[in-house]
Amino acid sequence: MNLDLEMTLPAGRTSPRKVSFAGLEGEWCVPAGAVGVVLFAHGSGSSRHSPRNQAVARLLQEAGMGTLLFDLLTREEEGIDARTSELRFDIALLAERLVTATRWVARHPEGEHLGIGYFGSSTGGAAALAAAAELVSVVEAVVSRGGRPDLAGDLLPHVEAATLLIVGEQDEVVRQLNREAFERLICPKDLAVIAGATHLFEEPGALEEVARLATGWFRRHLRRH
Questions:
Q1: How are strands ordered across the β-sheet holding 139-145?
Q2: CB atoms < 10 A from the CB of 60, how many?
Q3: Is the CB of residue 43 less than 8 Å from the CB of residue 120?
Q4: pLDDT tens-place string over residues 131-172
Q5: 121 forms bridges with which residues in the sheet?
Q6: Residue 71 phi, psi (nearest 5)
Q7: CB of 67 closer than 8 Å to CB of 61
Q8: 20-34, 36-50, 132-146: range with highest mean pLDDT
Q9: Are 114 and 35 in contact (CB under 8 A)?
Q10: Is 115 helix (H, G, I), strand (E, B) or coil?
Q11: Which fold is adopted by the domain 31-221?
């Protein structure tokens, strides 16, 4: 995949900048003095425009973290997935895209000295863990929100990045899948259950609690190099 990335806003701005590479589009933001950058991996038909991920990204930026929200599928692939729902479950493909973006961040002048973390949701949680298993010397922390870490399968024991799994108390099936995946992880880890929350964390205060936990996790584990 071509890693050349075209900025559509001038460098040095701390507001989100539109970026594009190899047919993928995203938003890149690095506040002054950032010690880490978090790449978002969505899933299940979502995109960089997900209001939940956008809300978490804004809170991370306010806490001094850089963020990269980008579409894991091209526009053509999104059209295919809208009809078949199959690409959102192609964990290998999603992880490959995330690895590509990570390598670009690690070489970018604004990102090369920052600790790198992943924030994954739904099937993006599995993609984040699969990518972290490949980039063990690069990725320092992973947070999964309502994710499907079980879909990372045999890669789970190979993850070395500190991993936080966040699930809703009322999301019973996904909560059990997260508990099973949690047992297979041998990295520094924690499992947080948000009281009263369902899969999309739409209940009052639920998403804010997710953002608070994620911010604390990344602050604890990401280090400027």
A1: 6-7, 17-21, 24-29, 66-70, 36-41, 115-121, 139-145, 162-168, 189-194
A2: 27
A3: yes
A4: 999 999 999 999 999 999 999 999 999 999 999 999 999 999
A5: 145
A6: -80, 125
A7: yes
A8: 132-146
A9: yes
A10: strand
A11: Rossmann fold (3.40.50)
* Alpha helices (H) along 63-198: 75-84, 91-107, 123-134, 172-184
Query: Is the CB of residue 140 less than 8 Å from the CB of residue 222?
Result: yes
Contact present, 41 and 127 (Cβ < 8 Å): yes
Q: Could you write out the DSSP letters of every residue in 171-214? A: -HHHHHHHHHHHHH--SSEEEEEETT--TT--STTHHHHHHHHH
Q: Read off the pLDDT of residues 165-214 as tens digits, 9 standing for 90 and up.
A: 999 999 999 999 999 999 999 999 999 999 999 998 999 999 999 999 99
The tokens for 4 are 């050349």
Sketch the domain layout of the chain as residue ranges. Answer: 31-221
